[in-house]
Design a protein that fits this description.
The chain has helices at about 5-10, 10-20, 25-65, 70-100, 140-145, 150-160, 165-185, 200-205, 235-240, 295-315, 360-365, 390-400, and strands at about 120-125, 150, 165, 190, 200, 220, 225-230, 245, 255-260, 280-290, 320, 335-340, 345-355, 370, 375-380, 380-390, 410, 425. The protein is of the alpha+beta class. It folds into 2 domains: about 25-100, Orthogonal Bundle (Helix Hairpins), CATH 1.10.287.40; about 115-425, Bira Bifunctional Protein, Domain 2 (BirA Bifunctional Protein, domain 2, 2-Layer Sandwich), CATH 3.30.930.10. The strands form 5 sheets. An 8-stranded mixed beta sheet has the order 1-11-12-13-16-10-9-4. Strands 5-7-6 form a 3-stranded antiparallel beta sheet. Helix 3 packs antiparallel against helix 4 (about 70-100).
């Protein structure tokens, strides 16, 4: 959530910065609410002054032995009007809060202007896409061998966009997740966490999934209690610091978790309908950092590098993209996407997205740290990234490491997790 001061004192400039993201701020609505707020506050101050004056007059009258009943009735009436104003002010502030919850974060000055993904800026590439001397199969064709990858059964069990993995391919999928967790905990300094997959509305609101993206979420209701299945472990991990004041020495706080993720993918039908690229249920190793504001952009580079190392150790060609203003996620101030090479498509596809959300989520969560220089609590900065999407990493390994006979070479770093297996066939 944006700083309310930006909507009160810098409305035009804020609207201009939001327009760069493709968001049209309703300035008229905000101005009307702000005018109402000021009117209520002015009237409240006047009533408080009047009550103080009347109260003093009551004391003077009683001191002289005079009848103060009329003054006392007047003060009681003022009190009732003040209570009514408190209620009005709460309603006005709720209106502004509801608007603010639907406003995206402001893009950092280093983010390029653009309307969509075609205007993202490539930062660098790693690895050279392999040249094949046989017709390349996609992951669906490769997975059909021995029934390793079975979308039909997944559809029978749950509906479209669910998949069953079997045998050595299921083992390879598990090996990828274990490798990523071990890498991030032992080499990159992230604390492994096991977190809830079902969370309450307050938790979803804290990381900005609610209220704007409710249609993209799966929900469950038991009695009168509604909870949501997490679309990413970012939700659970980041909310660990909700309503907390952290010591400066605890920052940066780096956490990782391997979880299933659940997304309704509302509005995405027709895109990537074949195979595992876009699923309702998938697995991801998530990275989350809680940082001091002055250090968050350095932490962002570090987090992105941690995800890159995963792909490099797997030998998967990729490129780093700096997303433009029109392609960033709702809560992000700056985002790098890592795109892995998929031979069957002859294109790079997203496998990781690493974002610095600055204080946008922290303001919703009231997640703070105590600045030793001031002794006062201040908002932290929150960052999240995929380290990386397990299913998409599986697809990339299958396609990049395939052989003419349909077998798949296991990357060397995964072999310890596969009982030494060098090839699955």
């Amino acid at each position: 959530m944006l700083d309310p001061a930006l909507l009160r004192g810098q409305l035009d400039a804020t609207a201009e910065r939001l327009a760069a993201r493709g968001y049209q701020l309703d300035k008229a609505a905000i101005e009307a609410i702000e005018a109402e707020r000021k009117a209520v506050q002015t009237e409240t101050q006047e009533l408080q002054n009047l009550r103080n004056t009347r109260s003093k007059a009551i004391g003077i009258a009683k001191g002289k032995g005079e009848d103060a009943s009329a003054l006392m009735a007047d003060v009681a009436g003022i009190g009732e009007r003040l209570k009514a104003n408190e209620h009005r002010l709460a309603e006005v502030q709720a209106k502004l809060a509801n608007i603010a919850l639907g406003i995206p974060n402001l893009a950092d000055a280093s983010v390029p202007f653009g309307g969509d993904e075609t205007q993202n800026a490539e930062q660098r590439r790693w690895g050279t896409p392999r040249t094949f001397d046989f017709k390349v199969k996609d992951h669906v064709e490769l997975g059909a061998h021995k029934g390793w990858l079975d979308g039909e059964t997944g559809s029978k069990l749950s509906g479209a966009r669910f998949t069953v993995l079997r045998g050595e391919l299921a083992h390879l999928h598990r090996a990828l997740a274990q490798f990523m967790l071990d890498l991030h905990t032992t080499e990159h300094g992230y604390l492994e966490c096991n977190v809830p997959l079902i969370v309450n509305a307050e938790t979803m609101t804290g990381t900005s999934q609610l209220p704007k993206f409710e249609d993209d979420l799966f929900a469950t209701e038991v009695g009168e209690t509604k909870r949501y299945l997490i679309p990413t472990a970012e939700v659970s991990l980041t909310n660990i610091v909700r309503d907390e004041i952290l010591d400066a020495a605890a920052l940066p706080m780096r956490m990782t978790a391997h979880t299933p993720c659940f997304r309704a993918e509302a509005g995405s039908y027709g895109k990537d309908v074949r195979g595992m690229i876009r699923q309702h249920q998938f697995e991801k190793v998530e990275l989350v950092s809680i940082a001091k504001p002055a250090e968050s952009f350095v932490e962002h580079e570090r987090m992105t590098r941690s995800a890159e190392v995963v792909l490099e150790k797997l030998g998967l060609p990729y490129r780093r993209m700096l997303l433009c203003t029109g392609d960033m996620g709702f809560a992000a101030a700056k985002t790098y996407d890592l795109e892995v090479w998929l031979p069957s498509q002859g294109a790079y596809r997203e496998i990781s997205s690493c974002s610095n959300c600055t204080d946008f989520q922290a303001r919703r969560m009231q997640a703070r740290w105590r600045n030793p220089d001031t002794g006062k609590p201040e908002l932290v900065h929150t960052l999240n990234g995929s380290g990386v999407a397990v299913g998409r990493a599986l697809i990339a390994v299958m396609e990049n490491c395939q052989n003419a006979d349909g077998s798949i070479d296991v990357p060397e770093v995964l072999r310890p997790y596969m009982a030494g297996t060098a090839r699955i066939a």
